[in-house]
Amino acid sequence: MKRFVNRLATGVAFAALTAGVASAQDKPYEGVTLRVLSTQQPWDTAVEAMIDEYEEETGARVVFDLYAFGQAVQKVGVELSTGSSAYDVFFLEASDVPRYAAGGRLAPLSVMAADADYDAEDLIASTREAFTYDGEIYGVPYFAATQLYYWNAEQLSEAGVDAPPATFEDMLAMCETLKEKGIAPCTALRGKPNTSENIWYWTQIMLGEGGHWVADFPNDMTPTVNSPEAVRAAEIYAELLTEHGIPGSVSAGYDDVVVAIQQGNVPMVVEGAPLAGRILDPELSKVSGKLGFAPPPGGSAGLQAPFTAQGWAVGAASRNLEAAQDFVLWATSKETVKAVTLNSPFVAVTRDSVWEDPDFIEAHGYDFGNGSFTEAYAEALAAGDPLYRLPIPEFRSMGDRVGLALQEIVTGEASAQEALDEAQEDVTRILKRGGYLD
Amino acid sequence: MPGKTNRGLWPLIMPTFLALVAITVLPILVTLGISLFYVDLTMPGMTRFAGLENYFELFQDSRFLNSLTVTAKLIFIPVALQIVIGLLLAMVLKEKLPGTGWMRMAFLLPAVIPPAVSGLVWKLFIVPGAGGLSYLGHVIGVDLSLDLLSMPGSALTLVIVTSVWVGTPFVALLMLSALESLGEEQYEAARIDGASWFQAHWHISLPEIRPVILTVAVFRILEALAIFPIIFVLTGGGPAGATEPINYYAYVNGFEYLRVDYAATIIFFFFVVMMGICSPFLINIARRESSEEAR
Asked: In A, residues 179-208, which contact B (CB 8 Å cutoff)?
């Protein structure tokens, strides 16, 4: 009996040992905890909801710390600039890549190019390039942002408007006509003073008018934020906001714009293409089935659609580099991206294959007879200016300064020329300090 | 000769003195030190000595110059209002009218609410179309759906009102305890001579509690910018920088633009200015206290 018990114990121990070895082989990151610092956007919450699958597959535990957008950007700045190892994976806007890559704060993600199954070439080229610094890729884009012109065709056709405006000047004239017919407010725009709100709008109007942030990036960094084109752009933006915008536009964010068009309070908006899922949310939207989609209006120099990409990067100080890279590749794989889009309102996809996927088109290929969403999105992305946001660390402070000038114009504190002349001086000072000007 | 007799007590005082130096003087010196360098947090090894460069930059920075003006408005207007309203409240509470007992408790409420929550309470109150202000307007039949945070003037006024709301109860309590320490005989004599309630306070209370008013004013000035959380929640410094005081601008530089050297410059400059303004009063208060002790 004793011998039997011994044999049984040996057998059980052997079985447990082999199972352990098999488990270690099957689950390469058993015992590893990965910390992700990101935003509370649909992408993040959808990936978080799917994380059991990854944890089961690899044995890693993934902890998400998700913050409101502005706070997330700020916390990422503090963590990365201090070289902290508290987080392994970071949310990153493409325009911030030079800020952290130049100082070695990000780990290169060249591993993705070597993984044939991952198919890095499938990522939209402009978004991939936006995360490349000095020939090395430092993050994986999962979010391709631009803007679209959303219009309530039913409401506008009754007022005799049946086509999208070609330029922002046309949009102004259209709003004047609607006002005369008693349809007001005509639109809603973001008004907060930063690179993601009022500057996001003003830049596209300015580029459309033929203006630029600087004389000739990167050869001549003399700022041109008070050029005639920039001043005209500020006037157009201010008139749209004050004369034709919703109440409280000065402090409006994208949530306010989404609600305005979603609830049928305004007949047209120029707003983020990735927000279509929320605008058409079947449980909340009063305009589902009525909206038309087109690329945003341009200017006298043509269409210059906004462009940025957001992605996940791995911190150079991470103690779990290999596991963190593996997680990022899993989260941005074709399969995961497709699953995220089918289970959430997320549509800002950076993978060509998903854009062409029949299931994705069925779920998000909105077309109510007044312009196809996916076609407008593709057209706007193709017209996106890669230098929409200058890829320099100082861009955020420059943008915020011009954003304040726009608020001065909107609130009547100063004329467009005065406010932008003063902003020009400050932007010159910021660029001098950064070593771009003598 | 108090100096000689106290000399042996230095070993006892030293730990407290060193702790105070560590938590007050040292951070100020470190801030001064950082402000004299060019620091790029994202580029390790790029720190270099910059001398007074950052200080020269301050005066070319229109956003900083604007924040100076906003700071002056956010310090002196609310403190003046807190002193006046606080004093009036204290005079009323001293009368021990029916209900003043629970009113003392009620006045304290704004002072015990965390500033960030105060900001949120006011934001919810004034939000156009859905807040308490709109509701009040609806009740009295007036359209009060005003977007007060969208215009520079009204946004600044709102921050000042919130600051007064938060700070006045504390001032009122200090004034009340000062008033209650005065003897009743002077007031009785004034009443017999035919002085009104207001005249009695004007000619007796105010001169008597003047040192208390001065002390309270100096400390309220020093604490005035502690409304940072209210601004953070209520206006974010906007619109158009109308509610962006110097400490908020320093925060933006330090945490959003990662310019810790410039943030340190702003803070140290502000420290020097505030000390310049308040030192004569603080020295005066200290001298008065030591002369009272000597008596």
From this structure: 191-193
Sort out which chain B residues have CB atoms less than 8 A from A247's CB and list them: 128-129, 145, 147, 150
Catalogue all structural domains in chain A, each as residue range(s) with its CATH number.
28-144+308-356 (3.40.190.10), 147-306+383-433 (3.40.190.10)
Could you read off the pLDDT of A318-366 as tens digits, one per residue?
Answer: 999 999 999 999 999 999 999 999 988 888 899 999 988 999 988 888 8
Residue A377: how many other CB atoms lie within 10 Å: 27
Nearest CA in chain B to A104: B43
- DSSP lists the bridge partners of residue A136 as A133
CA angle A342, A343, A349 (to 5 degrees): 55
Return the CATH number at B81: 1.10.3720.10
Q: Which pLDDT belongs to residue A17? A: 45
Q: B272 in contact with A at a CB cutoff of 8 Å?
A: no
The pLDDT value given to residue B141: 79
Angle at B251 between CA B247 and CA B252, to 5 degrees: 120
CA distances from A421 to A407, B62, B252 (A): 14, 11, 22
Beta strands in A262-307 (DSSP E): 268-272, 291-294
B137 falls within a domain: yes
Sign of the alpha-carbon torsion through B23, B29, B32, B36: negative
Q: Look up the pTM and report it.
A: 0.83
With a cut of 60, say whether residue A117 has pLDDT above it. Answer: yes
The residue assigned the tokens 């008070």 is: A226
**Close Cβ partners of A346 (under 8 Å, ≥ 6 residues apart):** A41, A42, A43, A46, A274, A277, A340
Q: Is the preceding omega at residue B239 within 30 degrees of 0, hence cis? A: yes
Kindly state whether residue B82 falls inside one of the protein's structural domains. Answer: yes
- Closest residue of chain A to B256, computed from CA coordinates: A74
The two most distant CA atoms of chain B are separated, in Å, by: 78
CB A269 within 8 A of CB A263: no
- Domain of B192, in residue numbers: 35-294
What length is written for chain B?
295
A107 contacts: CB under 8 Å, gap ≥ 6: A138, A313, A314, A315, A316, A318, A321, A324, A325
Q: Are A203 and A402 in contact (CB under 8 A)?
A: no
Dist CA A266 CA A187 (whole Å): 5
What secondary structure letter does DSSP report for A296? P
Q: How many domains does chain B have?
A: 1
Spatial neighbors of A43 by CB under 8 A, at least 6 apart, are: A142, A143, A340, A344, A346, A348
Distances in Å between the alpha carbon of B267 and those of A161, B247, B251? 55, 7, 9
Whether B74 and B245 have beta carbons less than 8 Å apart is answered as yes
Give residue A287's Cα distance to chain centre: 24
Is residue B23 a part of any domain in this protein? no
SS3 A38: strand
Token pair for residue A412?
Answer: 């009547």
Q: Among partner residues B40, B41, B240, which is closest to A411 by beta-carbon distance? A: B240
Asked if residue B260 is part of any domain, the answer here is yes
**Does B152 contact A at CB distance below 8 Å?**
yes
| B226-234 average pLDDT score | 88
* Contact in structure between A205 and A236 (CB atoms under 8 Å): yes
Which stretches within A265-318 are classed as H helix?
276-279
What is the enclosing helix (H) or strand (E) of A97?
helix A97-101
